[in-house]
From TrEMBL:
Its main location: other. It comes from the Bacteria. It holds the Pfam family CCP_MauG. This is C-type cytochrome. Residues 88-241, 298-475 form the Cytochrome c domain. GO terms for cellular component: cell envelope. The chain crosses the membrane at residues 30-50. Gene3D superfamilies: Cytochrome c-like domain. The lineage of its organism: Bacteria, Pseudomonadati, Pseudomonadota, Betaproteobacteria, Burkholderiales. It is found in: Cell envelope. It comes from Trinickia violacea. The keyword Membrane applies. Keywords: Heme, Iron, Membrane, Metal-binding, Oxidoreductase, Signal, Transmembrane, Transmembrane helix. GO terms for molecular function: cytochrome-c peroxidase activity; electron transfer activity; heme binding; metal ion binding. SUPFAM superfamilies: Cytochrome c.
């Protein structure tokens, strides 16, 4: 039985799922039928289908996919134009991005935590990075990758507000949403109820909307770049190696206005992230596969099928895997928030205080929705692009390998003793990183979390191995081999 079926004939006052583009995006996942007879190994058919993919019937397409690992229905992906020359503004931003003198320690730049060699994610496996004036203070959360953020929508709650100028405040929207049943997320199925959930925004809790607004956060954060004030940052910019560029772009008067100076500097950093192609390369094996320029191995293909299978891993229910109608490459996130009940990470010093809980949207780092306790424990669904290059996973950095992440998804409720520690009385402390009163917020309806204690896991060890193989195809920098392009016969 599933919630969305119960809610199906939705009340007329509630906008239908179709009204929301964000919800609509979720409807068209591939439902991949696993049952493909190996006997259909008709080589002639596959050659024909490979050469004329548009005319091949779906069943033949599936056979071709299974036999050759090629995408039977290649698409043209809409990539942003490759910039060969950065604007002067973006070049300035690049210098700021790598400038260690802008930190209190003099040893830390944006690139220290967002390493270009690691898809602009953390350079190491530390659960959180060390910062502050002497680089001895633990940060609060692991740094996300800075790739593909140009597609991140602004933070909002509930169905898309569209261009409505009278859009309610966040708190009003949250109140209105509080009585509405949460839409179930099933790969390949459009939710019957409108998704009254928070979406979009930057940071794990969505508390900043623009790259410009975001960038000032780490500059002032005492456990990160640890500048005491805007004036202190402005003073450093004034004597920086690139101060002439500021004068050139904004006039020499800019140095008399510290707020404006820092604001322009942050805008420049944002421009750099928008313009430089290294922030949105779309060069993963999966991108090339979508375009018919690479073939997946049997393991990768099987992993993709499980990833998209609503009854198995159901990863695509939240980590969207299909290109948009307009050929926009899939981002492997629905930009929505979920409470997954990730275990507490006791290697973070902050957790030694038993009252400390990082609850995402409802605080403590975000403050505007503190009263909206229905969102306590919810964090932004991250992209899985380049996930395989990370050595630290989830908002509290509790895991260090994809195997650990997969065990969590597979066993959280089925065998919690494998996921959570035991307390002094030997009792398994399930969902131990969220106060008991908020644990109803934890997702127990979407596969693979719809299983109960003692149920059969949704994934076997082999399934997990193949899903990880697939996640690895989302790493940028794959070199497509022209020999496997679809226009050459298999
Ligand atoms: C000490 C490590 C550190 C430094 C230095 C740092 N960041 Fe971050 N960055 C983080 C962490 C941690 C987060 C996530 C914080 C959160 O969710 O509360 C983050 C988040 C972000 C995000 C949002 C990403 C997302 O997916 O939502 C952007 C953009 C960003 N940082 C850009 C920058 C820029 C630009 C600089 C330099 C001005 C910088 N960072 C310096 C650690 C760092
Ligand atoms: C119900 C929505 C949902 C489903 C289904 C789901 N995820 Fe996630 N995923 C999330 C959210 C939300 C987070 C962040 C949670 C947090 O940090 O508290 C996340 C985090 C992750 C991360 C960590 C990424 C990082 O940068 O730290 C990986 C890897 C991941 N998911 C893979 C998968 C795979 C593989 C599947 C299928 C087995 C899956 N997810 C199914 C919502 C989902």
């Amino acid at each position: 039985m599933n919630e969305s079926q119960n809610a199906a004939p939705s009340t007329p006052s509630v906008p239908s799922a179709d009204a929301s583009p964000r919800v609509a995006r979720r409807r068209a996942h591939w439902i991949v039928s696993g049952a493909i007879a190996a006997a259909c190994a008709a080589a002639g058919l596959s050659v024909w289908a490979l050469n004329a993919p548009d005319q091949a019937p779906a069943t033949v397409g599936k056979m071709v996919e299974q036999l050759t690992g090629a995408n039977p229905h290649p698409v043209h992906l809409q990539r942003p134009p490759v910039t060969t020359q950065l604007s002067v503004m973006a070049q300035l931003g690049k210098q700021i991005f790598y400038d260690q003198t802008l930190s209190g320690s003099g040893k830390m730049s944006c690139a220290s935590c967002h390493s270009p060699e690691h898809a602009y994610g953390p350079p190491n496996g530390l659960p959180v990075q060390m910062g502050g004036p002497s680089l001895t203070l633990q940060g609060d959360r692991p740094p996300p990758s800075l790739r593909y953020l140009y597609r991140q929508p602004n933070f909002s709650i509930g169905p898309d507000q569209g261009d409505d100028e009278q859009a309610p405040s966040l708190a009003q929207a949250a109140d209105a949403a509080s009585g509405v049943a949460r839409a179930q997320k099933t790969a390949g199925v459009a939710p019957a109820a409108p998704a009254m959930v928070p979406q979009g925004g930057l940071f794990w809790d969505g508390r900043a909307d623009t790259l410009q607004a975001q960038a000032i956060g780490p500059m002032l954060n005492p456990t990160e770049m640890a500048n005491p004030s805007i004036d202190a940052i402005a003073a450093k910019l004034k004597t920086s190696a690139y101060h002439n560029t500021f004068a050139q772009l904004f006039g020499a008067g800019i140095f008399n206005n510290p707020n404006m100076l820092v604001s322009e500097a942050m805008f420049a950093v944002a421009r750099y992230q928008f313009e430089d192609s290294s922030f949105h390369p779309y060069t993963s094996k999966y991108d090339y596969w979508l375009e018919g320029k690479a073939r997946l191995t049997q393991a990768e293909l099987h992993g993709l099928q499980l990833f998209n299978d609503p009854n198995k891993a159901n990863c695509a229910g939240c980590h969207l895997s299909k290109p948009g109608k307009d050929g926009l490459p899939p981002m492997f996130t629905d930009y929505q928030y979920e409470a997954l009940g990730v275990p507490r990470n006791t290697s973070l010093a902050a957790t030694h205080n038993p009252k400390y809980y990082d609850m995402g949207i409802c605080g403590p780092y975000r403050t505007d929705l503190a009263k909206q306790t229905q969102y306590c424990g919810m964090f932004l669904t991250p992209t899985l692009r380049n996930s395989a290059t990370r050595e630290v996973f989830f908002h509290n950095g509790v895991y260090h390998s994809l195997d650990q992440v997969m065990a969590f998804y597979n066993l959280r409720d089925i065998d919690p003793a494998k996921i959570y520690p035991r307390d002094a009385h030997g009792k398994v402390t399930k969902y131990n990183d969220l106060p008991a009163r908020y644990r109803a917020n934890i997702d127990k309806s979407d596969a693979p979390f719809d299983r109960k204690f003692g149920d059969k896991p949704s994934m076997t060890d082999d399934d997990i191995r193949d899903i990880i193989a697939f996640v690895k195809t989302l790493t940028d920098g794959y070199q497509p081999d022209s020999k496997v392009a679809l226009d050459s016969k298999p």
